[in-house]
Amino acid sequence: MESFEVHILGCGSALPTTRHNASSQIVKIGNKLFMIDCGEGTQLQLRKNHIHFSFINHIFISHLHGDHCFGLIGLISTFGLLGRTAPLHIYAEKELERLMKPQIEYFGKGIVFPIIFHNINAAEHATIYEDNTITVETLPLKHRIPCCGFLFREKPKKRHLIGDAVNYYNIPTYMRQTIKDGADYTTPEGETIPNSRLTKDADPSRSYAYCSDTLPCPENNIYLKDVDMLYHEATFAESEKGRAATTHHSTARQAAEIALGANAKRLIIGHYSSRYDSTEELRAEAAEIFPNTESADEGKVFSIA
C-alpha cells in the first residue's frame, strides 16, 4: 500500500513565536507531495524536514491571511533559483492571483517555469483537483474572510488477485488487470471461474481533511463522514470561547465535537494561539470529548495506515 502521510511544517496562529511556525503542511501520497498553506518560514521547514522542493507541484491556500500565504513568494523565488522547469499549480481564491502577479514579475525575473493559478470559490464544496488515484475537495469554512478547508480522498482501489488461484488456473498476464477490475475468468475448456474465487477485497480508500481558521462548521460533517484523519484548528481553550467566536476561530472542545459528529477516526489539533506555552491543555480538553486526539507539532509526521 502506498504511504499516506501528513508532515506538519507549521501549526501556529497569526503571531510569530519561537515555539511554532506559521501554518503549512505537506500531504504525501505515494511519491506525490501536496502543500497546504505556506506561511512565513515554510521553505526553511522543508529543509529541516528533508522534503524535496522539486516534488511539490500543487499548493492549496485556504485563505488570504498572511500566516497562511506570506511564505509563497519566497518559495516561488527559491524554485526559480533551483532551476525548476515543471509547472507549479496554486489553488486559491482569485484575489491571490491579482496580489501575486506583481510580486512574481518583480522578484521572479528569470523564472522559466509556468505558474498556473486555479481560482476557487471558498464558499462552495467542489472537487478542485483529480488524478488517477485521488481527489481534492473544498470544504466551506466560516472565517472573517473567504476561507475553505481541503479534503483529500483516495479513489476506490482495485481488488487484489489471489496468487494461488492465478497460478492454479494459469491465468495469462493480459487478463489479470481485467479480473482485478471485477471480471470473471473463462478457462480454455470453457469453465467460468467467478471473480470471488480469484480476488480478495481491495485496500480501503483513505481520507484526510484540513480545517483551519474557522468557527465550528457541523454542516461539513456530510463531507467529513468517517474521515480517517481530521486536522482541525483549536486556536483557543474553552475558557476563551468568547474570543474564539469574536475572531472566528474554534476552541479545542469545539474541534473535538466536530470530529465526533463526523465519526472521524483521528483528530489532530493545531493553529495554536501564541498565549499557550504548552499545547497539552488544548489536547486534554479535546480528548475529553474525542479520546483519539493528538497535537500537531513542527516536524511531526502523521501516517494513515
Beta strands, count: 18
Q: In the CATH classification, which architecture of the largest domain applies?
A: 4-Layer Sandwich
The biggest sheet amounts to: 7 strands, mixed
- Return the structural class: alpha/beta
How many discrete domains? 2
CATH homologous superfamily label of the largest domain = Ribonuclease Z/Hydroxyacylglutathione hydrolase-like
**CATH C-level class of the largest domain:** Alpha Beta
The name of the CATH topology of the largest domain is Metallo-beta-lactamase, Chain A
Unreliable parts: none
Q: What global shape is seen?
A: globular
Strand content: 25-35%
The N- and C-terminal alpha carbons lie at a distance of 9 Å
Radius of gyration: 22 Å
Instruction: Give the topology string: H per helix, E per strand.
Output: EEEHEHHEHEEEEEHHEEEEHEHHEHEE
Mean pLDDT: 95
**Taking strands numbered 1, 2, ... along the chain, how are they ordered across the largest sheet?**
6-5-4-3-2-1-18
Helix content range of the residues, please?
Answer: 25-40%
Task: Please work out how many helical segments DSSP would assign.
Answer: 10
Describe the structure.
This protein has 305 residues and is α/β, with parallel strands linked by helices. The chain folds into 2 domains: 4-157 and 203-303, Ribonuclease Z/Hydroxyacylglutathione hydrolase-like (Metallo-beta-lactamase, Chain A); 160-200, no CATH class. The protein is built from 10 helices and 18 strands. The protein has a 7-stranded mixed sheet with strand order 6-5-4-3-2-1-18. It has a 7-stranded mixed sheet with strand order 7-8-9-14-15-16-17, covered by helices on one side. A two-stranded antiparallel ribbon has the order 10-13. The mean pLDDT is 95.
